[in-house]
Design brief:
This is Cell division protein FtsQ/DivIB C-terminal domain-containing protein. Keywords: Cell cycle, Cell division, Cell membrane, Membrane, Transmembrane, Transmembrane helix. Helix content is 41%, strand content 24%. It is α/β, with parallel strands linked by helices and 276 residues long. The longest helix has 36 residues, at 2-37.
Amino acid sequence: MMPQLSKFASIQKWMQQHLGRHLNSFQTLTSDADEVDTPAPKHRRRIQLTNVERNSVHMLVIFILLSGILALLISPLATVKKMTVVGNRDLTKKDILRAANVKNEHMFAWQLFREQQYFMQEAQKDPAIQSLRIKFLTPTIAQIKIEENVKVGITKQKQQEKYLLADGQMMPVDEGAKTIRNLPTYNGFKHQADLLLVAKQFGHLSQALRSSVSEVIWSPVVENNQRVILIMNDGNKVLVNANQIDKKLKYYPGMVVQTHQNGTFDFQVGSFFKPY
């Protein structure tokens, strides 16, 4: 039995020696193959530009940007699509644009922005325009905000009818405009200061109240040297102090509906009604 175990041990020792040698050789070959198959990393070559080339690229980029901006400024996208007017009462949009010398409502937006000061100055040459401002609601929608020097009546100067404005200035009356405007006539005024006082008072009234007056008469008395008589379109008469017209006349519509006949409304001291 012992000789067989000894023989088996010898065979086992021989296999370990020979197989171990071949296994080591295989591992060495595999390692070498890995080293051969793995490519060495390549280093990327950086592109170096000269100063001349770099400046040329910069100039090209700037030229492209400027060309794009120029194309946008002269394209339909840069025109004013809509122009609105707010604050006007007597004047129409056409009147305002004509006064401001705006000849093209759909001009380029940059042109309107650049010349808005000119348009404002031109508009203020018209006595009926007190101030004008232009602002952009969007890049293509502009708004004109106007403050009118409203027409408060018609008066005569050297036998010629003229519009009386809220600041006392006068404008020629166009043919047929008196009927259309439905403004009161001013009579009995001997001093420009008195006319200016009443004009300013009427300028604070609403369009509806101004239109409800047919005639404004300067009629001072001993007890009241600033008495004004207003002849109303509905057949009534109003007595009021010149410096209180805007405060007192606003109560007139409410008082009229409470009366059933025409008469005189006295607003000089308090509020009284006396039928004819």
